[in-house]
């Protein structure tokens, strides 16, 4: 291992890594580029050269020193985690630090700590860490507008890459010399390097292009009068598109850019120029991807993505037509031609009418039309999220096309949902979406929605509980909607399914039981409530009291379900239940482990400082009873007594007695004014 690390250090020193020999190891204040532009002063450890006032840091690069803070003890932890870098800290950068220490003449530090335990190909990891560090410094300099500094690092990478490529290739194992198609799935160091090399070429070409254009004077696009010339100028200016809002992959940061918003404001007149630019533009923006789009390095977001976001904003769609998973610009043009001049709701209706549209396009059109609040997708994402919804929360966009007939909007949506269901490869993907859609239709167009509502709920009733999962709440809402529309058979079907599912399913969020409170006076529901909350096999049976579920007991208590007398009795019975269902072990001073028998679960939790006097001793176990778990689930209720699973059994008994008194007072009070569904 020492010999291989020495070979690594010598190779890196010959091919660009800064030489730490002769430097004084210490800490200094240096300027580092920041992810959102500019630079900041940070403290870093490395080898300081006072005559040059430079320091070699743990990334193998040299930086000017602002202030030397003094010598420090040798350590492998050279990269300061407080530095806000473009990438997460590379877990293999320890090999680069080890190579630097060995080059500096300190093998003891080089082979200490993590390196003494690792056996994971030091050359590949150290070399890639160094190359990534130099590339990312160039990338951050580019984003900060310091093109000459970026070019210096990029040209150094170009100078040495042939030697690195040859060395990576020489070190490939026989197993790694596999065909190119498999390399995409089982990448080795050489494929990582080749991908990084492509990013270097792209960034170098962009830096050189920008330097050539620096002396040119351009007018602000907004001051250009003819719309066609103004649009062309705005497209040219997209290489300056910048956004510091990174919500990847929820939304592209390019949508937040003011330059993209300016193009969206031009309307459909900008579509054809944008589509033409989409075909030919190879430039990069100054916005850096918030998440790696590449195995070993970050990259600047291409101008094409800004163009794409402008096209989506003008058309009012996120799902554009594709061919072989690539956006098909000819199909985008065809979509625009078919819906030219239409409002966004009318365009979404036209997409639903289009038999050639994809499932994803139909799904998005339905989602947009049935949005419960008016969301302007052309607005920045943060404004979309925090703009208050209108009152009442009805599908405003659907109202714009309510009068369309032959087919109506409801008929179109039901037809498309049936086609999604008919596809054997995608039916499970759209199952929850279809159920949520018919629930909204039940409020918006109840007469036409009932048959589809019946079909979707019966489809779910035919599934085992584990396949329903998080859709249990939607199934409860759909059942209540059917009953509200006069189909009382829905309640019997739901009760039968819930009895088969068992109490463990019902306590995911508690909302799965809402049909009981929505239709509490129905004889079917009265009978079901008596059975479902019966002890010892009801809501609080041992198998239902999973650690992940008890935290939702508070939600059940503060729901309309509390109006049901069987549930009220269940809470009082359960808080008195002393059946042992597990144990709690105090492991160290502020840590304990909770173990349940059925289902078998373990949870680690910290102790609360205020509870320390009543805790069990380190190494001591205390039984966990049903009542303990109920109190643990309810302890966040307002004015609830204090409780902790790590208390002694006697202390927990006293707390449970307080809880019984508390519940006898709180249940009638909450049931008198229950929260709405």
Description of the molecule:
- By secondary structure, the chain is an alpha+beta fold.
- Helices cover 49% and strands 11% of the residues.
- The strands form four sheets. A four-stranded antiparallel β-barrel has the order 1-2-3-4. A four-stranded antiparallel sheet has the order 11-10-9-12. Strands 5-6 form a two-stranded antiparallel ribbon.
- α20 (446-461) runs parallel beside α23 (489-501).
- The longest helix is centred in the N-terminal third of the chain and has 25 residues, at 189-213.
- The relative contact order is 0.04.
Explain briefly what this protein structure is.
With 677 residues, this protein is an alpha+beta fold.
What is the typical, i.e. mean, pLDDT? 83
End-to-end separation in angstroms reads 65 Å
Counting DSSP H or I runs of 4 or more residues, the number of helices is: 30
User: Radius of gyration in whole Å, from Cα?
Assistant: 32 Å
Poorly predicted segments: 80-89, 180-186, 291-295
Number of strands: 12
Query: What's the helical proportion of residues?
Result: 40-55%
β-strand amount: 5-15%
User: How is the largest sheet built, in terms of strand order?
Assistant: 1-2-3-4
Largest β sheet strand count, sense and barrel closure: 4 strands, antiparallel, barrel
Overall geometry comes to flat
Q: Structural class, judged by helices and strands?
A: alpha+beta
